[in-house]
Amino acid sequence: MLFPWSDETFLAEGPMPTQSRQARQGEAGRPTVVPAVLDGEVPVWAVGEDGGAEPAGQCLVTCTRSADGAARFAGIRGKIAAWMYEREIYRQQGFAVFRGMLDGPTLAILNSEAKRLETSEIVAPSNIRTQHVRSLVNGSLLLEKFDPVLDLSKALADFSSGDTILEASRLLLATPSVTLFRDKLIYKHPGAPGYPLHQDYSWWHPVDPSSYCTLAVCLSDCTDDNGAIQFLCDTHHSHLLPQGERRALRPAEIAALEAKKSVSCQTRAGDIIAFHSLAVHWSGPNLSSASRPILYLGFIAGFRPELYGEHRRRQTSGLLADLRYGVHGREACFE
Ligand SMILES: O=C(O)CCC(=O)C(=O)O
User: Fold this and answer.
1) Ligand 1 center to 10 CA (angstroms)
2) What are the residue ranges spanned by the domains of the chain?
3) Beta strand pairing status for 71-74 and 141-143?
4) Residue 139 neighbours by CB under 8 Å, 6+ apart
5) Cα(96)–Cα(91) distance, rounded to whole angstroms?
6) Taking CB atoms and a 6 Å cutoff, what residues make up the pocket around ligand 1?
7) pLDDT tens digit string along 82-110?
8) DSSP character for 20?
9) What is the DSSP string of 203-268?
10) Whose CA is nearest to atom 5 of ligand 1?
11) Alpha-carbon distance values, 21 to 34, 81, 88, 164, 206 (Å)
């Protein structure tokens, strides 16, 4: 059966996944994306229902690629095809960008919540929920993040349990059931430093690393100037630290990754960056004059409601024991 064409197109990006050159068996209830015909520079993809491929010429989706490597999917199943494409990229390189996931009104609500929280009376350097960093420009203390944040904001919590987020995480973890187990809102105010190379998994050992992914919801544009996240491709296959070491990578560990391609995720407000728990990443300082807020949502495959509290207990006890908070001259607390 042919579906009507839609003028809407859905943007994906990155090199065409090599695995997708073969037909893939679809999961129950999901169509499979299969490249059917290579027509010059314009690959035509067929999306079949029930996991089967449509014959070439009866395609429901077309994919065109531009010189910058972005792929654009058109057709009634264009959105699904773009998501499948990104999932393939996530599998191959350890991260992917889902473009244009939030509409303007949603973005406005989330940004205004981020602003409201900043003026909350619990914001203090001694509160480990509202960690601070020193400005690289003038040494003043800046609010770094709320960690966790969702229990303080119904709007952020509703968004994080909404269809867009749950569908994306189910797709990435290839499971019908996912559990949110961590959340934080990083502000990266002007002058804030970046983050050294690390794997998120180092802070969370007791699960299979492939069952854990993070969605980074960009509330503003991310550029090299304001400290966009950068990834080392194809580093998501092994954990590089000894079990139990909660830290960033050391120079010798970084040197071993020299051959890995580095990609800076330049995103627009409303894009979502998805990354594997082992994907090595880092970011630079914010050298611009505006903040660069990102809402981070960590998901685990399956129904594991106990993990949220477990993660929080580990994080809180680790941070309360961390002498770093002594520098602010106040006893650390969690409020
Ligand atoms: O927001 C950033 O600049 C990077 C944060 C990060 O790497 C993380 O939270 O794991």
Assistant:
1) 27
2) 9-90, 104-328
3) unpaired
4) none
5) 9
6) 186, 188, 194-195, 200, 227, 229, 281, 283, 294, 296
7) 777 788 889 889 999 988 899 999 999 99
8) G
9) G--SS-GGGEEEEEEESS-B-TTTT-EEEETT-TTS--S-TT--SPPPHHHHHTTTTSPEEE--B-
10) 195
11) 7, 14, 11, 27, 35
Residues 271 and 220: their CA atoms lie apart, in Å, by: 9
pLDDT class of 5 with cuts at 50, 70, 90: very low
| CATH 2.60.120.620 given to domain 104-328 | yes
Contact 256, 89 (CB under 8 A): no
CA angle 60, 66, 69 (to 5 degrees): 100
CB of 94 closer than 8 Å to CB of 279: yes
Backbone angles phi, psi at 13, to 5 degrees: -150, 170
Ligand 1: centre distance to CA 19 (Å): 29
Tokens, residue 79: 């959105």
Cα 207 to averaged position of ligand 1 atoms, centre (Å): 21
For residue 59, report the distance from its CA to the centre of ligand 1, in Å.
Answer: 40
- What pTM, to 2 d.p., does this model score? 0.83
Instruction: Dig out the tokens for 174 from the structure.
Output: 């290839």
- Report the amino acid identity of residue 28: A
37-41, 71-75, 207-211, 216-220: which is most confident: 216-220
Q: What is the pLDDT of residue 317?
A: 75
The DSSP bridge partners found for residue 42 are: 39
User: How far, in Å, CA of 199 to CA of 83, rounded?
Assistant: 24
Residue 249 pLDDT greater than 80, yes or no: yes
| Centroid of ligand 1 to alpha carbon of 284 (angstroms) | 10
Are the C-beta atoms of residues 335 and 131 closer than 8 Å to each other? no
The answer for residues whose C-beta is within 8 angstroms of residue 36's C-beta and 6 or more apart is 44, 45, 46, 53, 54, 55, 56, 59
Q: How far apart are CA 277 and CA 209, in angstroms?
A: 6
- Which amino acid is present at 149? V
- The percent of the chain in helix, strand and coil, each rounded to the nearest 5, is 30, 25, 45
Pocket test for ligand 1, best of 229, 292, 311 (most atoms within 8 A of CB): 229
